[in-house]
Design brief:
The chain is α/β, with parallel strands linked by helices. It contains eleven helices and eight strands. An eight-stranded mixed sheet has the order 3-4-2-5-1-6-7-8, sandwiched between helices. The structure holds adenosine-5'-triphosphate and magnesium ion (MG). InterPro entries: FlhG, MinD_FleN, P-loop_NTPase, ParA/MinD_ATPase, YlxH/NBP35.
């Protein structure tokens, strides 16, 4: 087993592209994005599995209103198979939920690492996209989950605290994991163009202060923005997917556009470089 600080992205040859959704600060919209992006990608014909990679504090089940009897917890403890723990979500994709009782897995022990890796390896051949909904911040479990992904999406809001934390997280990904590029999703924007401006400001700071191992700066790729939209909160309160509840809302249309971009640049791209 490799050192958790060393990135071991899954090669595309094994099957699904592994995409991590992460953030510096909590509560910025990772789970909302993971679930709705999965629905948008499923609509485009992709076979998608969302994995609750926020082992200690998972809440994908809450957003999707699912109450599975079998979860990752049972897989980790050998009580169930992975196939038994995979559930169909309303948006036409599959989910693997952590469930409560995973608190003991919120620390990255060698066992947790092996179990996690085993689960990802075994589901990869059956899907086109594996979305890892991770926790916020730079804990070892989050960094391990992110290290397995071939592409990382960092979600941030325009708030200064979110941007400072995004900077800190990207710095770790660049310096410890030697990530060459990171895709930015700016959520809860007020005006068109905000996300692009924020991304280029962050890029300028990174260029000044952070280099990857090769002496290069990490490159931020602006994937897109999602506007602040009351329909998001309404969908969460109803425990429904925005893509199902309000597919014509501005935020849902933005997620549809993100899915299109991701599909065309990363998922369906033959060389898998996404560049
Ligand atoms: N574009 C948006 N417009 C309005 N509200 C939003 C938007 N995106 C997210 N929210 C609100 O933010 C809340 C938190 O989102 P979410 O649970 O997806 O964050 P998270 O990053 O997964 O949090 P955690 O770090 O705790 O896992 C949502 O329940 C919703 O009310
Ligand atoms: Mg979440």
């Amino acid at each position: 087993m490799s050192d958790p600080s060393t990135p071991t992205p899954m090669p595309p040859a094994l099957g699904a592209r592994v995409l991590a959704v992460t953030s510096g600060k909590g509560g910025v919209g990772k789970t909302f994005l993971s679930a709705n992006l999965a629905a948008a990608l499923a609509r485009r014909g992709q076979r998608v599995l969302v994995l609750d990679a926020d082992l200690g504090l998972a809440n994908l089940d809450v957003v999707l209103n699912l109450h599975p009897k079998i979860t990752l917890h049972d897989v980790f403890t050998g009580k169930a198979t992975i196939a038994e723990a995979i559930v169909k979500a309303p948006g036409g994709f599959s989910v693997l939920l952590a469930g409560s009782g995973m608190v003991e897995y919120s620390r990255l022990t060698p066992e947790v690492r092996d179990e996690f890796l085993g689960v990802i390896r075994s589901v990869m051949p059956n899907y086109d996209v594996l979305l890892l909904d991770t926790g916020a911040g730079i804990s070892d479990v989050v960094l391990f989950a992110v290290s397995l992904a071939s592409e990382v999406m960092v979600v941030a809001t325009p708030e200064p605290t979110s941007l400072t934390d995004a900077y800190a997280a990207i710095k770790v990904l660049a310096t410890q994991h030697k990530r060459q590029h990171v895709r930015m999703v700016i959520n809860q924007t007020a005006r068109p163009g905000d996300g692009r401006a924020i991304t280029s400001q962050l890029q300028q700071v990174l260029d000044r202060f952070v280099t990857t191992g090769a002496g290069r700066s990490v490159r931020l790729i602006h994937l897109g923005d999602i506007p602040v939209d009351p329909a998001v909160r309404e969908a969460v309160m109803r425990r429904q997917l925005l893509m199902v509840n309000a597919p014509g809302s501005p935020a849902a249309m933005a997620v549809t556009e993100l899915a299109r971009k991701l599909d065309e640049t990363v998922i369906s791209r033959a060389d898998g470089t996404g560049n």
